[in-house]
Amino acid sequence: MMVLMIGVERGVPGGMSTVVNEYYEAGLDKKIDLKYIPTMREGRKLKKLFIAMKAMIKFWFCVKKYEIVHVHMSSRASFYRKSQFIKVAHKRKKKIVIHMHGSEFDVFYDQECNDKQKKKVRDIFALADVVIALSEEWKEYLGRLCSMDKIIVLYNAVKIPDYVKKDYSDYNILFLGRLGKRKGIYDLLDVIPEIIKSVPDVHFYIGGDGEVAECKAICLQNGIQDYVTFLGWITGDKKENLLKKCSVFVLPSYHEGMPMALLEAMSYGEVVISTQVGGIPKVLTDNVNGYLIKAGDLQALRESLVAALSQNNRREIGENALKTIKDRFSIEKNIENLEALYRHLLEQ
Q: What is the pTM of this model?
């Protein structure tokens, strides 16, 4: 099978690049003839435009060789950029897979697009042979944009680490994600003073880029700077060490697809606290393999954090989280399903 895949540069922070990197680490490129073309790199607008044009030139020259074009897409600029590649692939009569990662695609389509732009979105989705949704909830939403028959659910997945968490005695809490309102970081910072009163030994490790200066200012204003460590965007060994060091992971998001950071934390046996948005309810069952709260509910967030740090069953919850990943969200099963999808496309 010959697959041409496009998306962001693999070093760009975010869930899309994490998914692609998981494919490579699991050996997808050894199972099929896979070529990856990055269409976006972090930087100024002119640099991004140059990267996109360079990617299109490369795409034009090599697309004829491949049978399937697999497009990793988000909303806004990502949608408009990838649309050009999809049009070319359609003209070349290639099988097209749109892999939808956009956690705010509903906001983009419903609130930011005018009628003409909405039609353009639907026209692009009509060119796809398959649309991959990250959860059943997103499948239902995307069914407004194209035929439900072409939409399949393929959960994000992670590699199971060669590590078994045995010590749950620490009071370390980890947050991973781009700092901003969407990921709920300001809600987390708001409840930290109350958490400190209940658990004086608690410490928060915040990994991510984005609105770092604003978050640090809030910590200084509230006098909690000694309880919070900002790490920047972390990857590799540094991220692995933090996942081992912390017993609790929190992601109080307002919009999500299927967050990779949450799956990674569960694969390390962490006790996870997150919200009822996107595909997260398909992963978490409240008080069984984590804590599930409503987005923006500060009281529930505070109570869940205190419970996760103080209850005697957090080892059991962490072990259940790991079992969930092994049973349903391992990268090996994900790749098997992806290969089956490619085979089905080629048989049509």
A: 0.93
